[in-house]
Write a structure and sequence with these properties.
Layout lengths: L2 H8 L10 H25 L5 H4 L3 H24 L8 H4 L3 H20 L1
Helix pairs in contact: 4-6
């Protein structure tokens, strides 16, 4: 097939795509991959014996929340890239994992300074 034939075939008509199909596909991929990755993680490393005690440490939550923020930002970016030509939504423009981590650091600094005083 020649390039001109391919372009003519693709531009022949509008094909309706179901609403939120990109989000649905990405969500299904996450639903399939997350349990599999957790299974591999726990099969290789196992569960920490002191997980309950570690949950009271602030650094534990930083280590949990930072990858979740990166994953959320990546989901938004992939969803946006899946629909070229669509204007980005305003609420997504202000979301950035760096801001979340900065807020965690500020709260941590305030609480440690309050303990010293």
């Amino acid at each position: 097939m020649k390039t001109d034939d391919l372009v003519a075939m693709l531009s022949a008509g509008d094909v309706a795509v179901p609403r939120r199909s990109a989000s649905r596909r990405i969500g299904l991929a996450v639903l399939a991959g997350l349990p599999l990755s957790l299974f591999i993680l726990f099969a290789e490393y196992g569960m920490r014996r002191d997980i309950v005690q570690a949950m009271f440490w602030p650094m534990f939550w930083v280590k949990v929340l930072f990858p979740l923020c990166i994953a959320a930002a990546s989901f938004v970016a992939v969803e946006r890239l899946a629909r070229p030509g669509v204007a980005p939504r305003r609420e997504y423009a202000s979301f950035h994992p760096r801001d979340v981590v900065s807020a965690i650091v500020i709260v941590r600094q305030k609480t440690s300074c309050a303990r010293l005083a």
